[in-house]
Amino acid sequence: MAVTPVGNPYVESSDLVANYPGASEALAERIDIVGVNPFADSAARATAIPSPTEGMMSSLNDTNAVERYDGATWKPVGGKVLQVVSVAKTDTFSTSSLSFVDVTDLSVSITPSATSSKILVFVQSNGSTTAGNSFVFRLLRDATPIAIGDAASSRARASSASRSADTSTAIPSSTIFLDAPSTTSAVTYKSQILVQAGTVFVNRNANDADAVSQARTISTITVMEIGA
């Protein structure tokens, strides 16, 4: 029995028939180590490979991630974008709440493929109030506010804040934040809002006159899993 330059076994024509089973088994074991084995998810992989060997590779169909076993854990291959999930809110929303409330349908869920992964979050929103009033956005991971400023007396801890100069303009507001959820369970990122006084409108201006100059806009949340 011989091996290729990269160590894969094979049977030579001069080998005895008795060598065939051993060569076949050695080749199968080698393929398990260097091949990229596909599985439905991490649970299916754990069932099929209860005791992985360092250097093994696998791909997970549920997250479309390729991972390598480093001797202790399965880790995504390369520090790169492993998956992208986005939601776009095109309808309008309004509230007169002086405390934070969810912006309807402005949330997105993602399931990290490894606890070491980071989640890069991009939020772009548009809002408007009666002239002179402020409105405040904040970002949450599940029920936990993230990407917010330090506590300072009664001031709102927020991700972004804007003030309407007039009632005919929607003001853009954005947040970019690199989060470390440290989990392989699904997490949900969502946007909340409050208003200083009066009513705040999302994806429209406060005036909302029926004219081409009075725009309806879009708000989005995009999340990217970044491999360690």
Describe this entry's structure for a reader:
The chain has helices at residues 20-34, 42-48, and strands at residues 2-3, 9-10, 36-39, 57-60, 65-69, 74-76, 81-89, 93-95, 101-110, 118-129, 134-141, 144-146, 160-163, 171-179, 187-195, 200-202, 219-226. Residues 3-7 have low confidence and may be disordered. Helices cover 10% and strands 43% of the residues. By secondary structure, it is mainly beta. The two termini are 40 Å apart. A hairpin with a 5-residue loop joins strand 1 and strand 2. It folds into 2 domains: 8-77, no CATH class; 82-226, Jelly Rolls (Sandwich), CATH 2.60.120. The strands form 4 sheets. Strands 7, 8, 10, 14, 16 and 17 form a 6-stranded antiparallel beta sheet that branches.
